[in-house]
Amino acid sequence: MTGWLFALVQTLCVVLFAPFLAGWVKWIKCKLQNRQGPAPWQPYRDLWRLSKKQVVLADVASPIFRAAPYIVFGATVVAASVLPIVSTQLPTAALADVIVLVGIFALTRFFLALAGMDVGTSFGGMGSSREVTLSSLAEPALLMTFFTLAMTVSSTNLSSAVAYLSQAHFTLAPSLIFSFMALLLVAVAETGRIPIDNPATHLELTMIHEAMILEYSGRHLLLMEWAAMLKLTLYSILIVNLIVPWGISLTLEPQAIALATVSVLGKLLVLGVLLAVSETSQAKMRLFRAPQYLGMAFILSLLGMMSHIILEVR
Amino acid sequence: MTKSVHQGQLESPVVDSIPALLNEAGVPTTEMSTVKGAARVLSVDSRFWAKAAAVMAENYVRWAAVWGEHASPDVLVKAVFAARDGHVLLCTSVQETGGALPSQTPFFPAANRPERTLQDMFGIRFADHPDQRRWLRHLAWSEDQFPLRKEFPLAGTPQRDTPPDCEYTFIPAEGEGLYEIPVGPVHAGIIEPGHFRFSAMGEDILNLEQHLGYVHKGIEKCAEGRDVQGLLRLAARVSGDSTVTHSWAACQACENAVGLTVPDRALAIRAILSERERIANHMGDIGACCNDVGFAFALVQFGRLRELWQRDSATVFGHRFMMDVVTVGGVTRDISPEHVALLQKAIVQLRKELNELIPMLCEYPSLQDRFRTTGILSPHVARTIGALGYVARASHEGWDMRRDAAYAPYQGVTVTVPTCKDGDTACRVRVRADELFVSLDLLDHFLSTLPAGKINAPFQPPQTACCGLGLVEGWRGETIAYVHLDKNGTVARYFPRDASWLNWPALEALIGGVIVPDFPLCNKSVNGSYSGHDV
How many Å apart are CA B22 and CA B451, to the nearest integer? Predict the structure, then answer.
């Protein structure tokens, strides 16, 4: 029972923390550009503002358009609940393994793309088309990465995987190095960051994620924005807990949990700084360069799988 | 990368040979001196209007502008052509009712929109114009009203609501998988309004059509009946980022018309203003181009440099954009010795910063990967459509009046004109960067050799009606102003021609083969003025 209660509280905390991480990355980016920048908690103010705004709907909007924000946000929250964040003793982890996790993200994307096309504006359609094109290239790479991981730890359950990695002797396994490199590339693409997409752009013709949610307003936009921030946070947690899992609690003891919370927060903030540095130091890629980038991710994940089979299977 | 060879120009003849060329080809011309200014004025019969253009086109003369003037029962039509070392003004007249002129568009694509504007504004016809659609006329006035005719009231006859503009027919996109993307006139960012219609196949743009005119302010009509000072207030506001350029061109036109000699010190100060305007705008553009590919670092750096630069302008000239400083007969503000020192210090500082920034940007891989080969305007196309300024120079067409047809105070000053060959976005950014250094050198020169003396000569209203032409190389390129003053000194006609009239079509021409998400970058690299075009 404690476990379930813990999972509930943890999910709630992650959902509430997500806007801060997005604001943190933005704040660091501003500092790197010698700008004052809005405070890291600015996204909370933005969400609060959106919550008070009226919803404006197109005449031609179908129920899908209205339902999509709830589905997208709900599915992302479900994803947040199955991720081992501060403890691997997570009863909810049994609900969904990594493959289901990829499926949940695919579900949100499916409804995002549908919503983008629903009201029939050309920008929404373009955004959906780009999103689907890119994710059809990103998903195989992500799955391949998870397969390699699953073969190493003999489980597709994320909690067991993280527990295994944090307990195992530190080895530079080539399969995991390749896989994690692929994971980083995919995470940047999937969360719509530079060099694939620019979350700060106002240019309708260049947008991917923003183009799909261009027609949303009020609480619908709030949910869409929040879901995007949550997705960024989830990918960040996935990265820090798989690549540097040390510090995560293997039990539900309060002390261990407290220590693990501090360590994961620290790791997330450092990752945020790294993301900000990477985003500041490069321009956005040409759209047709993105398939090459994701092809690179796939090749890395494939290399990971192959080196696992060739070098590490005994 | 940058060289100073400019093909189109070398092949074009000198101004003095043009009357003979026209006469040999069977176009009888008469030398006139009605319009005072740097251009050679030739009058031709309206029957030879297109023939004259054909001769010009054969000899690689560049088409620059056309405008009309209502003098009931006629409409006087004037066109400017640019030869290697100066300009020719061709004049003719047609009857206001049922009058028709042969179109010059078949020989000069650049004449397309200006001629359609003449049809909209004066009701004269260009009989064989290949495109008979309206251009600047939106639905605020009806098809049989011609705003620039003298009898049309200044306030117009507006309806309570302007009907929606649904009838304008764009070239239809037809075929399997082809679709149209309408963009604007309201955009997501804070920019001026303009409509773009793309025909696209997936992400590839097959065709772009612009529909402009949303910021038509009626400047030409408003100017009529004003005194010269009132005209200058208007000219400064044709396009805010080119306020010095348009003011100077309008002043030059007025001064040429009445034969007023401007003191040397005032001319030098005008050049200082103009070069400062060029530097501020080029810095803003380079930063904005980088921002359009998600490289915000450069936007912030250039934004900072531009802001510091404009604050100096505010300190010395009282206005960040230096609006209303250029006036007829001179300038309104003198530069004190302390301010000369301040400006010189700013130049040293800016040059130092640019020397760090520009080489970095020109070699930055992820940035150059986006810039290079994006939006190529070939030299041939640039010449055909008569592109101007940095757009032309990036495509190896090095027109620059400060060097080719130098006006005071550029006479005797060496002006380097940087050009590039490839015509892509990287070149358009590169040319701007190179021009920054050229302008800094020019500023150094004008500040260190600032002549003593008065900054203003008194303007005496003319005793008789007179016309003048102003030709100035603005930061966007060649800028033209025509002013007709009545005998009591009020304005009878004012026509400003911003370089954007010729650079907007360049954007249409360079967009073929570009992908949809690269359009904003191409648009920014050309940076036509909506306001300057729509007047």
Answer: 42
Determine, for residues A284 and B370 on separate chains, whether the beta-carbon distance falls below 8 Å: yes
- Interface touch A205/B183, C-beta < 8 Å: yes
Rounded to whole angstroms, the Cα distance separating A4 from A218 reads 33
Predicted confidence (pLDDT) per residue in A12-39, tens digit: 999 999 999 999 999 999 999 989 999 9
Nearest-by-CA chain A residue for B204: A288
Chains A, B: CB pairs < 8 Å: 75
Subunit contact B364:A283, Cβ cutoff 8 A: yes
What pTM was estimated for this model as a whole? 0.94
Q: Which residues of B touch A282 (CB under 8 A)?
A: 295, 366
Q: How far is the C-alpha of B285 from the C-alpha of B430, rounded, in Å?
A: 11
Return the bridge partners of B37, or none: none
Which residue segments constitute the domains of chain B, with CATH numbers given? 7-126 (3.30.460.80), 219-534 (1.10.645.10)
* Contact across the interface for A204 and B187, Cβ inside 8 Å: yes
A277 reaches B (C-beta below 8 A): no
pLDDT at residue B279 tops 60 = yes
Digit-coded pLDDT (tens) for B511-529? 988 999 999 999 999 999 9
How many structural domains does chain A have? 1
Angstrom distance (rounded) from CA A267 to CA A269: 5
Nearest to B366 among A126, A205, A283 (CB): A283
| Domain, as residue range, for A129 | 2-312
Cβ–Cβ contacts within 10 Å for residue B393, how many?
Answer: 30
Residues of B in contact with A29 (CB under 8 A): 296
Give the separation between CA B47 and CA B453, rounded to whole angstroms.
50
